Automatic annotation (TrEMBL):
Domain of life according to the entry: Bacteria
Species of provenance: Pseudidiomarina piscicola
PROSITE patterns: AA_TRANSFER_CLASS_5, RHODANESE_3
Encoding gene, per UniProt annotation: iscS_1
GO MF, any single term: metal ion binding
Reaction equation(s) it catalyzes: (sulfur carrier)-H + L-cysteine = (sulfur carrier)-SH + L-alanine
Cofactor: pyridoxal 5'-phosphate
Protein name: cysteine desulfurase
EC number: 2.8.1.7
Keyword NADP: no
One Pfam family it belongs to: Aminotran_5
Length: 703
């Protein structure tokens, strides 16, 4: 068997996404392994092996009570916090239904920044039990703190209220004592659930001294394994088991107990109670870690804005945004630097907002570009030191790629040359760049990408020759971008309604393959850019100018033009066609495909072992389709030839190399396998043979 290729060792990883999950501590992993191997009995069995298992179960429950300050009430081991939330909601709503309190006009109150597991559980059981209540989100202020007046107003008509101790995105900590006063003043008997998942290990809890009815916890958020958690239920709080049958957990939760998971919690509880242990750091130390990370981030991103106030937050979470820098770009380059963080919002450009930051009333750009950096109580100083160094590396790479503007006079040597495709969702914008002449034209600008293009112009000192539209009429946002770019680059602003410069030469002869008249031509470096038509124009980019040869059409930017007669009259068989919309992620197409004459194709189906062998062969071409800044931070050290060709530059790569690599094995590689899969499909469509991609991306190679 071929030895797998490893890009970077796992030990090099800086994991700063502990609010999502944590690594399992060695002593906890040992407890799990020991229990699985040696104490494998069923706690319900009466023989010695079963009694040994029962001891772990009972003792873990005793220690857990000490940790959360609950000598009274129930502590029930569950599969995790989600099960605890479901159980609490079912219990509260079942009790309300039995009392006959489920009539129209009642509310189910929950914090607007709650984990989605809470409102979804409320909606689910509200429908199944037909309790007829209205789900109502409790507003929060800009600090993420719950609106107490809103609670006081609506609580008398509530069937349940659900809040959280610490927010998973921002680390904002609610004042439970103040909340309790308001809740019990206006709803003394209303069941109250507090999601304590992010609180465990980050502050002291004395739940039995409160009137909190339900408190779910999860093991994997604090160095335990996944699949284990527990639920605190206050004495005399209404309770309905979610799982019945078998009588385990004193009848509160059926099913043979997850003893290895409970053994893990046993060890975790011991650590939390041991005042001499040095695994979990003090609040002062954790605060120092946060300050060091913030200082490094501010050095790397001088315009950084925090999305939460430290005075209301636990010290293990940093949520920030950088103006004009999408979270996707920061996450990707951090990942390449082996720093694991998460976006404060969804990663897809179709869902680009953080509902938590939206609920807090923060500006749109913060919600759309938030990054969450979170560490755990067991984090050590060495990890923080390494993280600070890597953050600087990542920021330097972003500057080299012109995604961050440097405050120095550095002249970065960008690799952009030729046709560059930028995307937002399924919409495409094209840059025509001549690297040596420092000239550029923009075709079909997208408002959401305007700032990115402006950064590139500023960073590379490009002279923008034109900003062109294929639409019949330019939109207001396009017009704004036109003015910004053209003025910034100092070019002639005299242009028609589609952005075509009035000074464009009128005596340019039409290129080969083009059988219709053109509206002159515009020089961009050593290429001619032609326009065909005015109502719904097509732009043609010629091959480099040669004194003795006629220009041919290498690229065509067709917008939404679909008229077959027109396209056939301006496109050659080898022209790369660049449409405005690309829903199927084809990147580019050609005339035969537009006419429905595309030949069938399929990727080479290669076993992982053979793929790893290919990566060790010098004749293999590895296309690293990550962005330039990702490649710079983590270059691929492989025996095979490696080229960095991001999807943004794939069109130009096809033009430059489509006749050079026809017989060589080609392996496309990216961070996760998504971009490489797109690239492999495109290369195969355009005649490249022996093309495959690493489906798991670098994550697979690093495993």
């Amino acid at each position: 068997m071929v030895t797998p290729v490893h890009i970077r060792p796992k030990a090099d990883e800086i994991y700063l996404d502990c609010n999502a999950t944590t690594p399992v501590l060695p002593q906890i992993a040992h407890a799990v392994s020991h229990t699985m191997e040696q104490v494998f009995g069923n706690p319900s069995s009466s023989h010695i092996t079963g009694l040994q298992a029962r001891y772990i179960l009972d003792n873990a429950r005793r220690l857990g009570r000490e940790v959360i300050g609950a000598p009274r009430g129930q502590l029930i081991f569950t599969s995790g916090a989600t099960e605890g939330i479901q159980t609490a909601v079912l219990s509260a709503l079942t009790a309300a239904k039995r009392k006959g309190a489920t009539t129209a006009g009642k509310y189910l109150l929950y914090g607007a920044t709650e984990h989605k597991a809470v409102p979804q559980a409320l909606a689910h059981w509200n429908e199944l039990l037909e309790t007829q209540a209205e789900l109502k989100a409790i507003p929060v202020d800009r600090n993420g703190l719950l609106d107490l007046d809103f609670i006081a107003q609506h609580l008398p008509d509530a069937l349940m209220i659900a809040t959280m101790a610490v927010n998973n995105e921002t680390g904002v900590r609610q004042d439970l004592a103040t909340l309790e006063k308001v809740i019990r003043q206006h709803g003394p008997d209303v069941p109250w659930m507090v999601d304590c998942v992010q609180m465990l290990g980050k502050g002291e809890l004395q739940l039995a001294q409160t009137s909190i009815d339900y408190a779910p916890f999860s093991g994997h958020k604090l160095y335990g394994p996944k699949g284990i958690g527990f639920l605190y239920v206050r004495e005399q709080a209404p309770f309905t088991p979610l799982i019945m049958g078998g009588g385990q957990e004193q009848g509160f939760r059926a099913g043979t107990e997850n003893l290895p998971g409970i053994a893990a919690m046993h060890t975790l509880f011991e650590l939390l109670l041991d005042r001499e242990q040095e695994v979990f750091k003090s609040v002062a130390t954790l605060t120092s870690y946060r300050d060091q990370l913030l200082a490094a981030l501010r050095m790397a991103f001088p315009t950084l804005e925090l999305n939460h106030a430290f005075e209301y937050s636990v010290p293990t979470t940093l949520n920030f945004s950088v103006p004009d820098v999408p979270s996707r770009d920061i996450m990707d380059v951090f990942d390449a630097a082996n720093i694991r963080v998460s976006s404060g919002s969804a990663c897809s450009s179709k869902v680009t907002r953080s509902f938590v930051l939206d609920a807090m009333g923060l500006e749109d750009w913060r919600s759309q570009s938030a990054i969450r950096l979170s560490f755990g109580p067991a984090t050590c100083q060495q990890t923080i030191d390494s993280a600070c160094e890597r953050i600087k590396e990542a920021a330097d790479a972003l500057r080299q790629s012109c995604l961050l503007i440097s405050d120095t006079n550095e002249d970065f040597d960008s690799e952009l040359d030729g046709v560059v495709q930028l995307r937002f969702d399924t919409q495409c914008c094209y840059l025509v760049i001549d690297r040596s002449a420092r000239e550029m034209a923009v075709i079909d600008p997208i408002p959401q990408l305007a700032e990115r293009i402006e950064k590139l112009v500023e960073c590379q000192h490009y002279r923008v020759k034109a900003v062109l539209s294929t639409e019949p009429q330019k939109t207001e946002s396009t017009a704004a971008m036109l003015a910004q770019l053209l003025c910034a680059s100092g070019c002639d602003a005299a242009r028609d309604s589609l952005g075509w410069p009035l000074a464009a030469q009128a005596d340019c002869s039409s290129p080969e393959d083009c059988d219709v008249p053109t509206d002159g031509c515009l020089l961009v470096g050593n290429r001619r850019l032609y326009r065909v038509g005015q109502r719904q124009p097509v732009y043609l980019l010629s091959s480099p100018i040669q004194p003795t040869a006629a220009a041919r059409v290498d690229f065509a930017f067709i917008g939404e033009q679909t008229a077959p007669e027109l396209l056939a009259s301006v496109l050659g068989d080898s022209t790369l066609v660049c449409p405005k919309w690309d829903e199927d992620f084809k990147v580019t197409t050609k005339l035969s495909e537009l006419n429905g004459d595309a030949k069938p194709y399929e990727l080479v189906n290669i076993a992982p072992e053979q793929q790893h062998e290919w990566l060790r062969r010098p004749e293999t071409l590895v296309l690293d389709v990550r962005e330039q800044q990702e490649h710079q931070v983590t270059p691929l050290d492989l025996p095979a030839q490696v080229m960095n060709v991001p999807l943004t530059r794939l069109i130009q790569f096809l033009y430059d190399y489509r006749d050079d690599f026809s017989g060589r094995p080609v392996v496309c590689l990216c961070r996760s396998g998504n971009r490489s899969g797109v690239a492999a499909q495109v290369l195969t469509r355009f005649g490249f043979c022996n093309v495959s991609h690493v489906a798991g991306g670098m994550a697979l190679l690093e495993s």
